[in-house]
Amino acid sequence: METHKQIVIESIKHHNIDIIPYNIEFTINAHEKMSNYYDGKYFTNNLGNFLFILKAKPENPFIEIAPDIFRDYFGVEWNRTVDKDIGVVCNTLVNKDNVKDFTFPEPDNPLIYKTFKEEIPKNKDKFIVASLGFSLFERAWSLAGMENVLISMAIDKDFINVLLDRILEYNLKVIENCCKYEIDAMIFGDDWGEQKGIIMGPKTWREIIKPRVKQMYEKVKSYGKFVFIHSCGKVDELFPDLIECGVDVFNPFQPEVIDVIEAKKRYGNYLTFYGGISTQHTLPFGTTEDIKKEVINLLRNVGKNGGLIAAPSHAIPGDAKPENIHAMIEILKNQNKYL
Known about the structure:
Elements: H1 4-12, H2 28-38, E1 51-55, E2 62-66, E3 69-72, E4 77-79, E5 88-89, H3 114-119, E6 127-132, H4 137-144, H5 146-155, H6 157-179, E7 185-189, E8 193-194, E9 197-198, H7 202-222, E10 226-230, H8 239-245, E11 249-251, H9 260-267, E12 272-277, H10 282-285, H11 288-301, E13 308-312, H12 322-333, H13 335-338
Parallel strand pairs: 1-6, 6-7, 7-10, 10-11, 11-12, 12-13
Antiparallel strand pairs: 2-3, 3-4, 4-5, 8-9
Helix pairs in contact: 4-5, 5-6, 6-7, 7-8, 11-12
């Protein structure tokens, strides 16, 4: 019998497979809701996820410095009064005066990779992904402020180039360290999109972001690993660029902003799509029949001939209906009954 790791690899290589791999993640609120629904907080142990994701950051990356205010290992402070998972940045650390001297975390810190040593041997049957979140643009705006970063992309290229190059230098060392372990892929988190297009525009993305992400992806490929990118929003106009840069798997593949069937037709020979189940519409607002129809359609049409890791298009939000989540899980776990 093939392991979950082998099935994911076959899907990424666009081979015909009997079962389509899937992966389901939850926000804090959604996890609590489903723990009550299933009468047990350990329900996630029975999901059958195909991926095992390791985060390339220290074991305890956030310290609560005030009620609902958390400081991360870069020194960024996050207000989690409303959003309990990520929060909103409430300080600014980097500016023109200190951009060359600001102290970054130590990329060789062994605590970043502690869970790699502990968890990889226990999960060798799964497809193991090392996650580098806030990998470039997101790291820049969390350090220097969204407005400052976007303005500098337009009128102060010296500042943004220095900042991004320093982030790139840090990332390349982290990538090198991660890829020395027995992982199968790295996933980079970097949201470039909103509901209607690219935040900084495609021209600026190609000028400022693309050359740097290409270096990161090439570093991963040099170790024989697969490259995943997570970028929320309508960013499908960048798919040819991402393919050129070496991306194997695109996530979150939001059906609200990207036509999943059309994307499969146009790019399915080059990209594997990870996501595709609506977290903005169907899971929170649809019926159980709506979610069943959407999941089966995704598996049949996008999953055909490989090239799909089925998943909610993001960690499931707290407003998703438990009965819809349950229906989705049942189909993904029992595909032979539905396909």
